[in-house]
UniProtKB/TrEMBL annotation:
SUPFAM superfamilies: PHP domain-like. Pfam families: PHP, PHP_C. One of its GO terms (molecular function) is 5'-3' DNA exonuclease activity. Gene3D superfamilies: Metal-dependent hydrolases. This is Polymerase/histidinol phosphatase N-terminal domain-containing protein. PANTHER family: EXONUCLEASE, POLYMERASE_HISTIDINOL PHOSPHATASE N-TERMINAL DOMAIN-CONTAINING PROTEIN. Signal peptide: none annotated. SMART domains: POLIIIAc. It comes from Neomoorella glycerini. InterPro entries: PHP_dom, PHP_domain, Pol/His_phosphatase_N, Pol/histidinol_Pase-like. Residues 6-74 form the Polymerase/histidinol phosphatase N-terminal domain.
Amino acid sequence: MTFYRADLHIHTALSPCAGEEMTPPRIVAAAIMAGLQLIAVTDHNSAGNIAAVQEAARGTGLIVLAGLEVQTREDVHLVCLFNSAAEALEWQSIVYQRLPAEENREEYFGCQLLLDAAGREIGREKRLLLTSVDMGLEEVVREVSGRGGVCIPAHVDRPSYGLLGHLGLIPEGLPFAAMELGLLYPDEALKQFPTLAGWPLTVASDAHYLKDIGRRVTIFDFVEEINLKSLHQSLRRQQFKVVVGQRDNFR
């Protein structure tokens, strides 16, 4: 068995609400400094910087999973993880088709920087990413699952963009891999939201700035090679624990 300290919700400078410091080499360095072995790049509605972060991490031992944080029609954020950057980009093409035809206003929302592995700007995403796609929660989950990906509702306990904080319920029958907590400890979340009982409860930093990377960590216990399938199995088998600050909660 091998333990991996993971932060599966990290933004790059492609997300307009993230700092321009969130470049591939700086993210990799910050993750290693935080003692992480596994991260996921999850920009808002886009996969444009995943390959650059993976290239920046090559040879360091840090594993970088491919993901997007999709904002559904209901204004719920979903972390969507895929087996490769190519698969994430395929999903991005669908997401882009369902985004409103609006351009980003940099003076209001911030820049959406496309970067190479060295952190150099190679372009700017012009379409507005910080908005909802024209897809409901169920459609997003079904589409991602059908493409071999997994969905984890992000920061479900937050009042804004969280599944429970925003909708107040967990829709039945949807194959979520886990529920990500953004504010509470797992025991506190179960008291406040009893419907979380029975779900794997993970944490992640939702880092928009370097200082936040690794602030909330899920430690996975893998018995196989690390990939999306083994991650999903670890969640189903409750082979993980979460760490928030100095306090541990064992699952």
